[in-house]
Amino acid sequence: MVLTAHPGCTAAVMHGADRPVELQHFPAPELAPGEVLLETLFSEVCGTDVHLSHGRLAGVPYPIIPGHVSVGRVLAMRGVPRDVDGRPVRVGSIVTFLDVVGTCNACWFCLVAKTPNRCPSRRVYGVTCSAREGLYGGWSQLITLQAGVAILEVPPTLAPERVIAGGCALPTAIHAIDTARIQLGERVLVQGAGPVGLSAATLALLSGAGAVYVVERHEVRLAMAREFGVDEAIRLDETGSRGHVERVLSLTAGRGVDVTIEATGVPAAVKDGIRMTRDGGRYVVVGHYTDHGEVGINPHTEINRKHLEVRGVWGVDFSHFHRMLRILDRYGARVAGGRGWEHMVSRTYGLDEVNQALSDVETGRIVKGLIRPNPVRPSP
Amino acid sequence: MVLTAHPGCTAAVMHGADRPVELQHFPAPELAPGEVLLETLFSEVCGTDVHLSHGRLAGVPYPIIPGHVSVGRVLAMRGVPRDVDGRPVRVGSIVTFLDVVGTCNACWFCLVAKTPNRCPSRRVYGVTCSAREGLYGGWSQLITLQAGVAILEVPPTLAPERVIAGGCALPTAIHAIDTARIQLGERVLVQGAGPVGLSAATLALLSGAGAVYVVERHEVRLAMAREFGVDEAIRLDETGSRGHVERVLSLTAGRGVDVTIEATGVPAAVKDGIRMTRDGGRYVVVGHYTDHGEVGINPHTEINRKHLEVRGVWGVDFSHFHRMLRILDRYGARVAGGRGWEHMVSRTYGLDEVNQALSDVETGRIVKGLIRPNPVRPSP
Amino acid sequence: MVLTAHPGCTAAVMHGADRPVELQHFPAPELAPGEVLLETLFSEVCGTDVHLSHGRLAGVPYPIIPGHVSVGRVLAMRGVPRDVDGRPVRVGSIVTFLDVVGTCNACWFCLVAKTPNRCPSRRVYGVTCSAREGLYGGWSQLITLQAGVAILEVPPTLAPERVIAGGCALPTAIHAIDTARIQLGERVLVQGAGPVGLSAATLALLSGAGAVYVVERHEVRLAMAREFGVDEAIRLDETGSRGHVERVLSLTAGRGVDVTIEATGVPAAVKDGIRMTRDGGRYVVVGHYTDHGEVGINPHTEINRKHLEVRGVWGVDFSHFHRMLRILDRYGARVAGGRGWEHMVSRTYGLDEVNQALSDVETGRIVKGLIRPNPVRPSP
Amino acid sequence: MVLTAHPGCTAAVMHGADRPVELQHFPAPELAPGEVLLETLFSEVCGTDVHLSHGRLAGVPYPIIPGHVSVGRVLAMRGVPRDVDGRPVRVGSIVTFLDVVGTCNACWFCLVAKTPNRCPSRRVYGVTCSAREGLYGGWSQLITLQAGVAILEVPPTLAPERVIAGGCALPTAIHAIDTARIQLGERVLVQGAGPVGLSAATLALLSGAGAVYVVERHEVRLAMAREFGVDEAIRLDETGSRGHVERVLSLTAGRGVDVTIEATGVPAAVKDGIRMTRDGGRYVVVGHYTDHGEVGINPHTEINRKHLEVRGVWGVDFSHFHRMLRILDRYGARVAGGRGWEHMVSRTYGLDEVNQALSDVETGRIVKGLIRPNPVRPSP
B touches which chains (3+ CB pairs under 8 A)? Predict the structure, then answer.
């Protein structure tokens, strides 16, 4: 199916480590059976994009079009693709999609180990799909959804801005919170208040935690955490005096919290966080999406005698993504003291500002940045 | 230790099945080592008390002083009893206590099966403690806490009325919610909107459920459920048309909810509830504290093919009671649209009104009734 | 791909409820891309086949070729199908396969509820595949494996007879045992000693159970259970005196076993089995693959006060099937006192004897029957 | 109760770090209510005793009588102590006991965090009980069981030698295996073949593992592991070439085992073991009972991306101890190729040889050593 009338689109292309992202024109794609073409409403810039811009991830087939989680409007399709509820996808509707394609459901990882996120065939929009193959990233005016991509229609009660404010961080945080199994009234510590950490802290509040504390380095993020309602946002003390550790212990009768969620990506935070977790507690590692080296762990005092349980969380599956929409639809307006989930967004960038966006995320000047590839059109 | 100066007290005594509860005077008790004497601020009347009044529970050593969960002020003690945090109990402080004594921590039930609630030595205040042995129930102006009773100081931020509004229903509901393992965004059905059901529905809301539905027979309880914020309070349809089942299915795309919590005590509700639960869902039975007979279950369609998981929940342990205070302290004011947890209380009765209280609970005229054994004193 | 030289094959076809199975000739199939053609070495006859012969399952597209789990030799293929370990399937090798095709990995059941066995697209070889569409059942000299069927090569250390002796019952029993989470030294009761029950009892022994008891009605199956080494094979007492219940209670100090696995398909067995399970125990329902009506359950005494956990188990996924081969390879020779897993097989039938086979299973004259569609050839 | 006729006994007393253990005479103890006096049949020497002899544990109230798990014959008692099944303890019977006393069942650790092994009141026979207070260790001809110590009668089918061969290592290994939740057919790696590691490997075999591998440094322990039937006993390669890691990976198609149990106490083993565990696997740390420092862990590659679950296991509770007897009674004779669990015992020492016993354990010359404080008497 060729969209002969369509003039094509502009996309931002990342060519490799430490090279500026450049704009490039692409013709309108030819759709294969089962494929859907989206006009991009929003994509986002996240920490993974910064890692990509420095070549820190293995197996990335540069050039790529970054932007994994996105929201768009259906422009065209070939065949009758259906959403997870079996409803046909309709032209004109607003949709989002799980950014994964190709998980084979036939290999040892998929069928036996049940870790489909480790499936060798799996590819991720905006990360491991080459720009040479198609419009497979959200920093583009158009996105081609390959057959088999899991699509969700955004309900009319939910603004696209709110969905993208959830973005990739929110389903990841849902996965972490599921893994943490917080019981009503338990105390939770979140390390790091970037989008994943802020989302996890907000979800912990929504889960009925007895208290939620955040430890973070940047002041702008501490302020945001307070606006999202955490009980205490504690500045990371990088001196030897370890004030933040003392603070968390003093808030918990010297015992530490019941559950800690690590969302920093800094190896030293793991050691720190274990110290702030109680005996018999749970420690969830969700922040380490790139390799920043090792941290010294004492198996006697920090794991064995402590009866600690440590769990790694990598990525999401569709069930997390599916619940994201339900959570946003129900709770998205009331978080952050009624400001709504989109309060997490610091700034929205056009396609010509993506290098600035990457720099702003890297330096911690912003909490979360959106990418809006198409000019804003007046509402009909 | 004899409190020679104390004039003794009045208590309400239940003498056996279907006999009126009568008031009786008791001398001030002689405290054994480790015992604590409370002036009762509040106790409550619950469904179990109605069952007791009809002789429906086995092994009850009538005469008894009813009232299991209570809040009181420490009048005296012998020795230095400590609370769970190791702090000495102080005269004048407001406390509550887990209503269990004698769990042996030495038998097969306690140590091997890890079901201490089935320990043969266990006795429950207000239920299986005889009035001939001591002031072991809350429908009395004084309560004697035996050595080993687990005591919790009520924090000054928490009014005694709010604690007793939680009462025995709230920790039971916490246990049920823990067992249900609700994930953020999942849909929850609660069957029955008595104190346990209402508490469970409210906790499900606090747990970040995607929606909370209640099915109930009495209009006063449906109205209360709405005031506590459930998404939909559905009147039980006892005709053959099964309107409530159809309603829940239509709210869930025909699939049923993810989790159902049964809090009715009516056997037929179990069959009904399974019908409203999705394939692969969880069904928690918490309402059946007395024997009301059987219900027909089809193992093929209702368990096996449905991949259903059914879990029985009986009573609480101290950890549920401990978290109750933390939950009330944090969330107790904001529930029921800011009316607070005490909004669940329909009426407060004096000791001379306990027969009326029992009748009101039995007929469903009230949701929750308190007992206030001592006259209200002006605050100092 | 057309196998022009192949003369075609004979298959046994079931035409509907209570009609005799008849032999029919089929031409050699034309293979589509990704398909594999097997020469059938063994298939089996199981309780589901008896249900099929009476029309007790819904949605069966008669005529069908029965036989879900089978073992065969690869005759031909089109393209390069691979097994779960990524190795290409080779002509001449001995394989088995999970009897499921079409699970969509795209719907709510597959992706959100994570119950792919409830996926509406799922079809099962020998059960819900029509004989009009292809050679999709094991009671045939040839079997066509559709693209996407999960194939496992049988290791050379494992005889095809042993694999089919595991058959469909063993992976089902693995699923049940996984669900039962038996701890070392726990006592296990299995209700029913058909192939699923015997397999579950044998796996419980292999799991380090403290004791394994079997309750069963047929003497031939009780004898078989003893030969497989259970601690006690107890004859079902269908009089009012309930001798089997008393026996199990007396073996467990009056408490009941830690875990019970139901493998009878008789509703009354569920009530019986709960009675023989201890407080706080686990009850796994795996036997109810067709609807045999209801049983009266008392939610108070049998679930709530008992702290019981009941779990339904339906079918298997590939991970159970994959582990079956590993378990058979390691333990298959040593079970049944060294007689091997194939000791469970009572008789092997030719295609012309399948009606007799159905009758023998239905009347309980045999434990497990095999179907060998092709004449035995002398080994090369 | 004074045993006036008893001449008293000899015990081995440890006076502090790096001082020889010395024999000392004690008078027969005066029993308090609920206490039981044992004539010691066997105690043991374990790695913890070596740590104690070097002062490596905090909070040890030297002088102590070492020996935590022991088996003895009841000589006398005061009152009617009962075992966990409610049967009165009888003079002359053979018993063993959980080596813990004083767990309060009243503090935050016991009641809320549910980690009674972290209860501040808990004391351990042979470790944290002072010899100044009583005969509270097994390296003594007599042992005084304080009221509340959990006692188990050894069944007549079980020789005392077999029970003590289980000793403290077996219940610890049961706890580790419970935590590891091995599924039938899964591959298990055990690091270290001291008594805990050998017990864990043997239990993994009894649990139906698909394969059990052991990595160990000492040749005598490797040989023992082979005699206990592990699939492969692999010598620890301490060169840079890492042969043992390569060997485990090659045995598992390059993926690593499903479950690893660490039983070495060497920090570097944790890193090593994670390398040999598959994505999505489980890693149980049970070997680290003293502080041997840190190991560098990479949170990205070794936890997060790997979806790893790490669990610390410290000590046991009574349920592990209780199941130990059932496991030994059932499986104790058949392990080690029919040599029985006591095959793990390398040597039995008299009280005058305990310094030699400590040295033999420390240097790895033996696998497990027993202490027999009383001379062997001819059987009656």
Answer: A, C, D
Find out whether the peptide bond into B63 is cis, omega within 30 degrees of 0: yes
Average pLDDT value for residue range B274-279: 97
DSSP secondary structure, D268-290, as one string: HHHHHHHHTEEEEEEEEE----S
Whole-Å CA distances, D304 to D65, D137, D267, D299: 45, 44, 20, 6
Other beta carbons within 10 Å of C25: 10
The helix (H) or strand (E) run that includes residue D75 is strand D71-77
Which residues of C fall within a CB distance of 8 Å from B273? none
Best CA proximity match to A349, nearest among A91, A24, A57, A23: A23
> Is residue B135 pLDDT above 80, yes or no?
yes
Out of C174, C184, C203, closest to residue D203 by CB: C184
Segment A24-75, tens digit of pLDDT = 999 999 999 999 999 999 999 999 999 999 999 989 999 999 999 999 999 9
- Give, in degrees to the nearest 5, the angle at Cα C218 between C217 and C223: 115
Judged by CB atoms closer than 8 Å, whether chains meet at C304 and B311 is answered as no
Say yes or no to pLDDT of A2 above 60: no
Structure tokens at A291: 């390799």
Task: With CB atoms and an 8 Å threshold, state whether C207 touches D207.
Answer: yes
Whether residue A379 is predicted with pLDDT greater than 60 in this model: the reply is no
pLDDT-derived band at B255, boundaries 50, 70, 90: very high
Is D323's CB within 8 Å of C207's CB?
Answer: no
Q: DSSP characters for A276-288? A: TEEEEEEEEE---
| Start-to-end C-alpha separation, chain B | 28
| Residue pairs spanning B and C at CB distance below 8 A | 140
The letter for the amino acid at C333 is A
H/E stretch holding B110:
helix B108-111
Long-range CB pairs of C116-119 (<8 Å, 24+ gap) are C116/C317, C117/B307, C117/C314, C117/C315, C117/C317, C118/B279, C118/B280, C118/B307
- D295–A295 CB contact, under 8 Å: no
Going D327 to D331 to D332 to D337, the CA torsion angle's sign is negative
pLDDT at D328 over 70: yes
The structural domains of chain A, ordered by start, are: 9-154+350-371 (3.90.180.10), 170-312 (3.40.50.720)
Q: What is the dihedral sign for C-alpha A124, A129, A135, A141?
A: positive
Q: Which residues of A touch D307 (CB under 8 A)?
A: 115, 117-118, 312-314
Nearest to D8 by CA among D33, D41, D30: D30
β-pairing, B36-45 vs C187-191, is: unpaired
Query: What percentage of chain B exceeds 90 in pLDDT?
Result: 87
Residue C120 Ramachandran class (φ > 0 left, ψ -120 to 50 alpha, else beta): alpha
List chain C residues with pLDDT less than 50. none
Mean model confidence pLDDT for chain D: 94
Closest-CA residue of A relative to B253 is A85
Q: What is the pLDDT of residue A1?
A: 55
Residue D138 predicted with pLDDT over 60: yes
Distance CA C184, CA B129 (A): 39
Tell me D93's DSSP state.
-
C239 Cβ partners below 8 Å, 6+ apart? none
Tell me what the mean pLDDT of segment D240-269 comes to.
95
Measure CB to CB from residue C112 to each of A107, A111, A318 and give the nearest one: A318
Q: Is D16 left (phi over 0), alpha (psi -120 to 50) or beta?
A: left
How many CB pairs below 8 A link A and D?
Answer: 140
Predicted-complex ipTM score:
0.94
Q: Give the per-residue pLDDT at C86.
A: 85
**How high is the pLDDT of residue D179?**
97
Read off the pTM.
Answer: 0.95
Which pLDDT belongs to residue C3? 58
